[in-house]
Amino acid sequence: MNYDVVIIGAGPGGIYSAYELIRLRPELRVAVFESGHALNRRHCPIDGEKIKSCIGCKSCSIMSGFGGAGAFSDGKYNITNDFGGTLYEYVGKKQALDLMRYVDEINVKHGGEETKLYSTAGTKFKKICMQNDLHLLNASVRHLGTDINYVVLENLYEELQNKVEFFFDTPVESVKNLEDGYEIQLKNHSVTCRECIISVGRSGSKWMEQVCRELKIPTNSNRVDIGVRVELPAEIFSHLTDELYESKIVYRTQKYGDRVRTFCMNPKGAVVNENTNGIVTVNGHSYEDPARQTENTNFALLVAKHFSEPFKDSNGYGESIARLSNMLGGGVIVQRFGDLIQGRRSTPNRIEESFTTPTLNATPGDLSLVLPKRILDGIIEMIYALDKIAPGTANDDTLLYGVEVKFYNMEVEVDDKLETRYPGLYIIGDGSGITHSLSHASASGVFVARNIAEKI
Fold it and tell me: Which residues contact 130 (CB under 8 A, 6 or more apart)?
């Protein structure tokens, strides 16, 4: 065999798999294959001046490369079983939390020592939310910020690069099961390994589906989250963000009984584009460095949609909505909340005259032409509900960017070791459909690495 272990994907799951394998068994021959660039070559060409919108790079530096889609996120590591995935269903609740705390220790040791660990435990806001029919989920969260998150990744790569073989800009075409291991097929050649860890993230969902079909690995359809990114003056949510930093709040709509939730809150952050399989959606960043902070806070409002037989393509449904947004706006659409309620599209003049200055150069338009009525009704209801605990959320000049879509891989059938029906083939991270966050994905990598280190 060329390698003892091959890891496909250099996102959080892949990085922490490699880290733990080398820590426990430094003699192992480990290789990591990544379709995207090395960390120092990950640069989005959008500069806001010469290039103002996505140009469809062959490899999106925001979504792929060392660090995965989380590399330029705002670096929030939530330590909780209440959201972020269902890893605890496979490894147990206590072990899942212990693994996430261990990942936090690694991050702190590699550059995150000056960052703060926030917690919702014992907060007065839990009661305030319940009094207004909102539900604040329990979590501890380490906020690294996009800047410190990058430093942590740099330090992790520095430590790993001479102990692990990294192959960047090297997409894997297929995985073949051998009698005593696996053959990893690349463009012009192949390599073999005894154990294989697949950690391709959400951006690798199409490829993951192909691998499961070829190897006849059973899968179950998952959900898709569809919504908007809200941007408003930071002062409106400051009483929440100063104490909690991120508040995961869930609301059940009165009209349809759907659940709407806040996601990825970025105090004094910026709204950004995101490219998934050629579709431009919206996301948000925030920074620890005060010099890079803005006057606005942004967060997503998402509605989860599950589908029953005969329809199984939840990601395809989300993609079709995102493509409609791209068709109408050439990318991301922005609309004032007041314009949405009054049934009119936002115009460049209305956006320019708004008291909330947008941090993303998006196309003014009408989100009611893009989002399904049921989803949009839920988002509007949630905004009015949030206005009760953060007055000003429902102001006319609150900005809504659309669409934001969180694609989830179909859930791959694995056992309590995250191992498929093929011994030695593990599927972890967001690519498994089991984890939906940096902390859960990283923890799944550590978990599998420990099993392999003990097994070999």
Answer: 136
